[in-house]
Amino acid sequence: METLELKQQADTKSKARSISGSEAVLEAFLEEGVDTIFGYPGGAIMPIYDALYDYNEKLKHILVRHEQGAIHAAQGYARASGDVGVVFATSGPGATNLVTGLADAMIDSTPVVCITGQVFAHLLGTDAFQETDVINITTPVTKWNFQVTDATEIPSVLAKAFYIARSGRPGPVLIDITKNAQLQQFNYEGYKKCEHIRSYRPKPIVRKEYIAEAAKLINAAEKPFVIFGQGIILGNAEKEFKNFIEKSGIPAAWTIMGMSALPTDHPLGVGMLGMHGNYGPNVLTNECDVLIAVGMRFDDRVTGRLDKYAKQAKVVHLDIDPAEIDKNVKATVPVWGDCKETLPLLTELIEQKVYPSWIQRFKEFQQKEEDKVIKDELNPSTDILTMGEVIKELNALTKGDAIIVTDVGQHQMVTCRYAKFNHSRSNITSGGLGTMGFALPAAIGAAYGDPKRKTVAVIGDGGFQMTLQELGTIMQFKPDVKILILNNQFLGMVRQWQQLFHEKRYSFVDITSPDFVQVAKGFGIPGKSITKREDLVSSLKEMLDHKGSFLLEVMVGKENNVFPMVPQGRGVAEIVLSREEV
Amino acid sequence: MLKQEYTITVYTENQIGLLNRIAIIFSRRKINVESLNTSPSEVDSVHRFTIVINETEDVVRKLCRQIEKQVEVLKAYYNTNEEIVWQELALYKVPTDIIAAEVKVERLLREHGAKAVVIRKDYTVFEVAGHREETDNLIKVLEPFGLIEFVRSARVAIIKDSDGFHEKLKEFEYREPGENAAENEYLNENEKVFSM
Ligand SMILES: Cc1ncc(C[n+]2csc(CCOP(=O)(O)OP(=O)(O)O)c2C)c(N)n1
User: Fold this and answer.
1) What CATH class has B87-152?
2) Does A557 sit in the ligand 1 pocket, CB within 6 Å?
3) In CATH, which superfamily holds the domain spanning A208-361?
4) Is A120 designated active site?
């Protein structure tokens, strides 16, 4: 026994070799299955970039044009692929440029590992060139962060970083590595993946008695309603979820983050929740008797006024994060755990059922919404193009198989309202933070995360101007990204609010744009701009069929509004279908 | 729900930066921390935070969940004052000549359980350990006699019906923690869950 151990020790010793901290970072990436890095070099991360020079064949590095672009790309990569997105940035301004993306990844639970360079350890706290306190700046927007000052820590810290980023409720992790640690040679004894941290419990223990309690409520319900979020996608529980609703026969609505976890045309799918969600799901939230929330967190954009939210219903809340239970909406029965484990247990205990008259209620509301909103949006009676009809034609061409990445604003809401999805991980959007400028870099990341599918970025004229420098990244590395700009010549969503709630006092929402087609051309990306309906389908087709990236600008109605809408401060049942009702 | 004083006890790894992570959970929600103490705990290598805030139970429970969510936090408990034994330490600096001259002062100090820590020609430093009211009272008593300096420490507290953290930690060490380490242990108290 003892001799065996000694022998094993000798074995690892003999395997040990001297490498630098920088090489240790790249070795860790290989061990964790990383294939693509989004990054931007600079002084404090130069040793890592130097090491990267020799890893060129094993690790693809995409040189973005701004660190915000790097992290959004990593987010897009993670959301499309389900793997951890990885970022390199230098200290100081490089690191602070990551903050928006970290906040976005934090609130949308996206697994990302960022490595930032930092000044030499002996300079910490001296206001050295490009020194910022990255750890403290990023603490509120990371699931975990850590500063490494000694290379020997790198293998275990990176193992922890990947484990924390991807396990439990995923999130962004930032590791700040001082330059001396990157340069330091040390005795590398191989990489050991992290599987357990004693102070960290990624998944709560599943309590069967509460699953039984939940099943009892569901089985006794007459008007049960399922609402689901991204938890299903993050937990890879799409199949388990489908089984659950198909056996239960319960109508199900998605949050913007949960969209595509269930194919959008599933017979039990009744649409989107929230401020610009569908009519039925919002109103009937306040009519159901049992509300079953799966992997969602009752964001205020979903609930509207909390004291008018589902007060009549018993609430079953399935979530992996204990802090979400009772945070906004009190659960009658909390089902804490990974929904991949809890859903099958629940499915087993529920009765096979159908609710024809209850589902009929959803259909009635759907019809009203068709008549008052959807018909005009998808088949407008004027010559002016609407955002909705663009998405309708896009659906017809992609058949629901594309990844659609949206920016933030009216086009985002319209796209999420009308886009069709057959596959999970298809709707990539900045849900919790609402970060304008997200779409273009995230689409680049998505194209690397799942190159087999087509990636279409739908962006407003405002948001596109926030990160359009990433066209340079497309030019250089040639990911296939279709860019669809829906140009209403306004900061549309803000304009809508000013029109509805500020007596049309349009305060700085009138935004002028450059000639986007010319801009794209400057980056070697072909493009086209259209204003007429007769050009729409052919142009969309041209964009989708083009080998490589393509920019299509569609000029749409300037002052169109997104409806339905739950005005801020009102209950979900007070959702309105038109301007007159606001 | 009524606001009252709660003492939050947090067992953590000893990690740089964790103090900030915990502090911002309160500051982000604009919750005033009345007192905060960090110290070793009964378990080697495990740290113990003692935090006092004035809030409703609902808010305190949510805060504890947010605290427990931090990767390096092992466990957070919250207790009312009835459920803990607690002390704060106060130091008082007073001119020595006045104390020497006034017989009354000596009696007052003894009544308040004050102990002299340092006696110098120019001043004397007394210490009192006790509850907030007790240490407050002595300020009032000493003010007329030229109280030069006063300082009070953060609260430290022992949870009356806790068995300590040794056994719990063992569970945390396992890959699959037992019921004790579960976040949802309060579920055992049914009325807290089925409150509708
Ligand atoms: C970084 C950032 N700044 C400001 C906002 C506020 N905001 C939300 S939507 C919006 C207008 C977006 O305009 P545009 O990109 O043209 O899209 P549209 O609403 O017209 O579709 C603004 C300014 C934001 N979400 N993100």
Assistant:
1) alpha beta
2) no
3) TPP-binding domain (3.40.50.1220)
4) no
